[in-house]
Amino acid sequence: MKTSQTICHFAKRMALTLILTVATISINAQFLFRISGNGLKEPSYMLGTIHILSGSLLDSIPEYLEAESQCQQMYVEHKPSGTTMVINLGELGVQMVNYPDDKNIFDIIDKESAEILTEKFKEATNRDLSDSTWKYLWKMTPSTFQNQLSLHLSGLLERKGSMDMDLMKRVQQRGWNVGQLDDERMKFDLGIQEKKPLTIEEQADSLMAFLKNYEGRKQQIIEEMEKTNNYWRTGDFEGFVSFQIQEINQIPGLIKDRNEKWLPRMIVAMHEKPTMFVFGAGHLIGEHGIIEKLREAGYKVEQVRKNKTTYSFL
User: What's the pTM value of the predicted model, to 2 decimals?
Assistant: First the structure.
């Protein structure tokens, strides 16, 4: 039961940052929020994003363009060091572990799972675990392997760029200052965490269950992503909150801790000049979400809405 729940939670967490692109959508200004009051001379804005969608989509949303035109700088979660945001093993918060009795991943999963893991990991990353060149990867945690394969199923390993990055590039071309909310040394982290960390044995059980129903897990991830997509593309923030709040509460390190660090930086930036903040939509929701924290600090936060209009895009 616990393994099944873990996998279900994992699929929902993937949906926080991953999404399928569709040809025609009904746009309702998405998760765009206006921040005002508490001494602000002009409003600032927050855009909760689905990271891997193209920023060009927002060119079709007048409300976003109007909000952006009122701002003078932008803050994003984390500025990539390179010219493209390419997802690879080095950026995925890969965790190595000292297995008991100096064992490795192939000592704690069964033969059937080992064969599937080798096949699917090569398919996902072009790294052949049976080749001694990659033997050092055998020390990765079972959860890390599962994360890698889930990213592959979602298509993120093959994707470049993000909505956040597209917007960052656009405003940089205008000469805007672009700051980042995260600490400089923070590593890319999917936030696949538990309140109580899983043991190696529990992680292995979850990985084996995942591998033995690989196609089923693929479909589950796709369905979770489609649900998230529907909420975002229609601007149904309340529905998104209801769908994701339980998972948000499961990953305090990704949400609560980071939001607490972001809040004072956001307040300073807003009082400096009108600012557009762009970050993953999951950071907006819950008692530790940025919306609630700004309201507790005395600011008025309201969602920017519009009548539904249909747009087409690639």
Answer: 0.73
